[in-house]
Amino acid sequence: MVLELDISTKKIPELSNPSVCMKDPQRVQEILQSILEAGTNTLQVISDFDMTLTRFSYNGKRCPTCHNILDNSKAISDECRGKLDELLKTYYPIEIDSSLSVEEKLPLMVEWWTKAHDLLVEQKIRKDQLAEAVRESEARLRDGYELFFDHLHEHGVPLLIFSAGIGDILEEVIRQFNVYHSNVKIFSNYMDFDESGALRGFQGELIHVYNKREGALLNTGHFQELRTRPNVLLLGDSLGDLNMADGVQDMQSILKIGFLNDKVEERKPSYLDSFDIVLIKDETLEVPNAIVHYLTGNK
User: Fold this and answer.
1) Which of 24, 92, 166, 193 ranks highest by number of CB atoms within 10 Å?
2) pLDDT higher than threshold 60 for residue 5
3) Using an 8 Å Cβ cutoff, are 112 and 87 in contact?
């Protein structure tokens, strides 16, 4: 095991970073080797967005999620903002409570997002307010985001972003950061606007932290391309993100990277049991970038 770890850290020195924890380094090495040998054209990257591709905090202050960007904007009344904040204080501790099972959390998460979406619809938010909301927000992608998005695009590797957030806001964030490339596909909650451009609801089934999965894309145009890519690099910050690749056809290898941003000591054991690599309070994409470069033949 020591020898194998030495080999992987020589090839990917970033795996020796202080933020990196691995329960089974040998297994990480074997997965990396398997994906490398299969080739770039068999690889796809599946990632969460909020607090995975975006920063958890900056200069000691929490960074906004897609929902927060809207909640904090001029498009929302102070009264609505207060109600949304109360929902956050009620339900977020439940989402990250490691003592509760997914089955216990599930109905409460659905309840949270449904109530939040109903409040947003009441505000009659206009489509043309979204770009300004993002521009005026403190949204930040993780350090190294340009390299991450640009390199995947240059090598033709699909990047699927699954988000329980708001797809319209997510798209606007990556558009304003100039990384909304043609290889990026987004699966999220999209707003439904009426003829006058006012929000009247959300499209389709509610996407929440525990039902994000590639299987939901089976009936879309992306399916044919993705079925030839059985190797997956998965990035998430929640145990619910582990299911995002459930729909991948004939999966061969999957390397799961988990960002542990909050309540570290309490949640670390379950993250180490579930993710192959755990990044503790790491606000960068340095490790995923190094792995992507390695797997695409750029040592």
Assistant:
1) 166
2) no
3) yes
CA distance 39 to 229: 10
Q: In this model, does residue 167 exceed pLDDT 50?
A: yes
C-alpha triplet 80, 84, 90: angle, nearest 5°:
145
3-state DSSP assignment of residue 7: helix
DSSP 8-state code for residue 54: B
Residue 90's SS3 state is: helix
Q: Annotated catalytic, 150?
A: no
Give the strand order in the sheet containing 43-47.
20-21, 277-280, 253-260, 231-236, 43-47, 159-166, 184-189
Q: Single out the catalytic residue among 48, 168, 241, 282.
A: 48
User: Residue 161: helix, strand or coil by DSSP?
Assistant: strand
Handedness of CA 65, 285, 145, 202 (dihedral sign): negative
Residue 241 annotated in active site = no
Model pTM? 0.90
Classify burial at 96, counting beta carbons within 10 Å of its beta carbon; exposed 0-12, middle 13-18, buried 19 or more: middle
Of the residues 50, 168, 237, 276, which is catalytic?
Answer: 50
- Environment class of 32 (CB within 10 Å of its CB; exposed 0-12, middle 13-18, buried 19+): buried
Tell me the per-residue pLDDT of 40-76, one tens digit each, with 9 for 90 and over.
999 999 999 999 999 999 999 999 999 999 989 999 9
